[in-house]
Amino acid sequence: MATTHAVDQGSGQYQPKGKGLVLETVAAWALALIWIAPLAYAVWAAFHPPEFSTRFDLLAPLTLKNFARAWEAAPFARYFLNTFVLVTLVLVSQLTLCTLAAFAFARYEFPGRGIIFALVLAQLMIMPDVLIVENYRTMSKLGLVDSIPAIALPYVASAFGIFLLRQTFKQVPRELDDAARVEGASGLQTLLKVYVPLGKPVYLAYGLVSVSYHWNNFLWPLIITSSVESRPLTVGLQVFSSSDQGIDWSVICAATLMTSGPLLLGFLLFQRQFVQSFIRAGVK
Amino acid sequence: MIHQQPRSWINAWLLLLPAMSLLALFTHWPAVATIVDSFFSTPKARRQSVFVGPDNYHQMLSDPVFWQALSNNFWFALGTIPTSIALALLMAVWVNDRFPGRTFVRMAFFTPTVLPMIAVANIWLFFYTPEIGLLEQVRSAFGGRTHNWLGSQETALAAVTVVAVWKEAGFFMIFYLAALQAIPPNLAEASTLEGASRWHFFRRVQFPLLMPTTLFVLVNAVINAFRMVDHIFVLTRGGPDNATTLLLFHIYMVGFSFWDTGYAAALTVVLLVSLAVLALLQYGVLERRIHYR
Known about the structure:
The structure holds 2 protein chains of 2 kinds. Chain A is mostly helical. Helix content of chain A is 70%, strand content 0%. The longest helix of chain A is centred in the N-terminal third of the chain and has 32 residues, at 76-107. Mean pLDDT of chain A is 84; it is low at 1-7. Chain B has helices at residues 6-37, 55-61, 64-96, 102-114, 117-128, 134-141, 153-181, 185-193, 198-209, 211-227, 230-235, 247-257, 261-287.
């Protein structure tokens, strides 16, 4: 939080000028164009008739038919709903659980704190993505296979979230905490009135990372779901593009853009806030 | 200290309870169960799982696909980790400067991070397609011969590595950018007064100050090298002839295609041990060389 003064100061005294600036601009633009090329191509193919998917002609007619065909070819509406439910469920439960745990680590002294914190950090290395075999077994014992909570549950207690919020809460001045308690606020009230509001940039940055992670997650949902009713977009897209339509690039590109569309749009709209919340959160 | 009485211990434990029980159920327990199950046979319809000692590990030693996956994963890690970190640092230094179109450039670098890997892999699949793919069109324009990038043993692993670097470099860039902007401006002023070149300033001031970020990014890059397999499903499905089978993909195939969960548990143990060893190495070696502010 001490870094707010520094937003977008640039490189200051070392800002390149003249030839150096021209060279850097050209190089940065060249790399940026390479980086954006796959997406640019997908946009091209999705908005033009299939016969233009490999021919680049500025006069090619624009069309939305590819999107219509993709939408009809698979139950994308249901997949969208599933992903939306999944992402919301994960985010809300993560924020709640991680806030409570982080507060305990940041502001309470209790026996076993070091060991418990180490147990939390272990998840940074032993991620749910790797424990697919055992977690599948657990889910089938719990009778949760092929449900949205089953996709979400292994990720809800997030070590990254707990760690990040603990760092944030530790920076909150003791005096603010004491003042709230003197006024008679309980531990939970202090957390909600003092700590949570001060951690806003961190919550935003973490929320964005979490939403994009779970919107995009594939392997675990692929394993744990088997029906249209619980499949998220990523798995739906894979089922769709590896089936018979698999050769029609225009439709595949349309489906690809459709599935990443909301996330991409959200990112483009909030780009500034996104980068700045990272900077403010001092995630480093 | 206000919160040291026994009552506040109980409060602390209550605050921790929901998160810790889920962690125990979906991280600690499965990690231990993986090790236990790796010494048991796979339960079949009519035969219970029985203790088989190190049989699953013997099977692993004589499984050529396992060795191939291990070596593939090593090259995949070596190809993605340094490249994506170096590119991320370069990107961050660039977009930290002011130049025309900076917002667009920053967006272009970061966009791949937001897109689902499974979706963008479809686009890359098209890039790599022989005859009509974009890469092929560019090559043939320069008179190159047609080449099946994903279909040939020599290039398939490199091709999926490129996709991984493309996907994660922009994400790491954000962390470097955040850290660069947190460096106090007076350091640059002092450095110019001393007449230091930009390279010198980067090498002696910025880079050392970025070390905590580099450690953070490195840990993430290492984890990703073992976790990123989504694109394999679309691009190659581990082929040709297992040339792009990574460890986690092999675990998936063994566990959920052949349903040999005992052997899959043994493979998972290898993956967990690799991650643990790498974690200890990184903290042990790097922690001492980092100057925290």
